[in-house]
Amino acid sequence: MRFSRREFNAVLTLFSTAPLSRKLAAGLVLLLALVAYLAPAGQADQINGWVVAVADGDTIIVLDAVQVEHRVRLAFIDAPERTQLFGQQAKAALAARLYGREVRVDVIDRDRYGRSVGRVWQNEGDVNLAQLLDGYAWHYRQYAKKSQSGHDFERYAAAQEEARQEQRGLWKDVEPTPPWRFRRAGRSG
């Protein structure tokens, strides 16, 4: 479990000489964060809130109505890593589309880093699909085939192919390196 700045400050407040009312508020912040973390994906199947940060081309932070931050990985796609060619452009494209805006996340799973993995909707538009269409992500078929419907799988594959044919985003590169290969090369090199 990773702590947000708000949660870290709450821990510091608990062990400080702060007034009891501030300590109770800090305890509530930590309790809400713990509940959000421990809730199985099936119970917290939807997150509604505002995008307060964009970590990279496929990860956002959503602040919900009770001020809990949710780190969300966009399902079925994989964007270039931040240090990879087109990584910063993918992040900028996602930020331009979502930063400061209200979204709905249909949570599908929770990954090994504790992030919610889901389909992100903004004004009824599928943000995950839009990242593919703009050429800032790959359709992550290896994982998509496990839980993506056949119809959506075909739509995502077609969106990637359209972006490739039109040489949008990362497809401007003659031989773009998928992020999973980039990560593997980084671990072995």
Explain this structure.
By secondary structure, this protein is an alpha+beta fold. The protein folds into two domains: 1-38, no CATH class; 43-188, Beta Barrel (OB fold (Dihydrolipoamide Acetyltransferase, E2P)). The protein has seven helices and eight strands; from the N terminus they run ααββββαβββαβααα. It has helices at 5-14, 20-38, 87-98, 127-133, 141-147, 150-165, 179-188, and strands at residues 46-56, 59-64, 69-74, 77-78, 102-110, 116-122, 125-126, 138-139. The longest helix has 19 residues, at 20-38. The relative contact order is 0.13.
In short:
The protein is α+β, with helices and mostly antiparallel strands. It has helices spanning 5-14, 20-38, 87-98, 127-133, 141-147, 150-165, 179-188, and strands at residues 46-56, 59-64, 69-74, 77-78, 102-110, 116-122, 125-126, 138-139.
Largest sheet: 5 strands, mixed, barrel
The domain tally reads 2
In terms of per-residue confidence, which ranges show pLDDT below 50 for 5 or more consecutive residues?
none
Classification by helices and strands = alpha+beta
Order of helices and strands: HHEEEEHEEEHEHHH
- Level-2 CATH architecture of the largest domain: Beta Barrel
Radius of gyration: 18 Å
| Apparent shape | elongated
Q: What is the CATH T-level topology of the largest domain?
A: OB fold (Dihydrolipoamide Acetyltransferase, E2P)
Average pLDDT figure: 90
Residues in helices, as a percent range = 40-55%
Amino- and carboxy-terminal Cα gap = 28 Å
Strand tally, please?
8
